[in-house]
Design brief:
The structure is a single chain. This protein has 2 domains: 34 residues, no CATH class; 102 residues, K homology (KH) domain (GMP Synthetase, Chain A, domain 3, 2-Layer Sandwich), CATH 3.30.300. β1 and β2 form a beta hairpin. A 3-stranded antiparallel beta sheet has the order 1-2-3, with no helix packed on it. Strands 4-5-6 form a 3-stranded mixed beta sheet. 34% of the residues lie in helices and 31% in strands. α1 packs across α3. It has 145 residues and is an alpha+beta fold.
Length: 145
């Protein structure tokens, strides 16, 4: 299998950034209290959204391979950041310290099979792997709806 190229084009207007990926467009901005216009999610919220999307797509793909009855999966993801890093403290990382993932899985499968799917997704999802490689404490809780 050949390597894949992933690319975007982005333009900015003040704190607002419009990103184009193929025929799709996303808008990111800073919150008003951070000096932005709040015209879209901030970049860290965008990363968490990307994590949810990647886990969702990975779960759907793997569920087919595993003959797993995946009817739906919803995510609530929370990341913790120490703002001192964002403000220039070189002793504090500028990215997430921890990420808590709660996935609610609609299925007829058992809790054991849900955990099997969860582990497969964690091992295969590129976005999850990137966060884990950054030494972010990933706390996962997949539950049956």
């Amino acid at each position: 299998m050949e390597k894949m190229e992933v690319s975007i084009n982005a333009t900015s207007e003040g704190t607002t950034l419009t990103s184009k990926a193929g025929k799709h467009q996303m808008v990111f901005d800073a919150k008003a209290e951070m000096g932005g216009g709040d015209k879209g999610p901030n970049p860290m919220e965008g990363l968490l959204s990307g994590l949810a999307a990647c886990e969702n797509i990975t779960a759907i793909t793997l569920a087919k391979e595993m003959n797993f009855d995946l009817q739906n999966i919803d995510f609530k993801i929370t990341g913790i950041i120490d703002p001192r890093g964002l403000m220039g403290d070189s002793n504090v990382r500028t990215y997430f310290e921890t990420i808590d993932i709660e996935a609610t899985v609609t299925t007829t499968e058992t809790e054991e099979r849900i955990k099997e799917l969860q582990k497969a997704v964690e091992a295969s999802c590129p976005t999850y792997g990137m966060f884990a490689a950054a030494n972010i404490d990933m706390n996962d809780n997949w539950i049956k709806a």
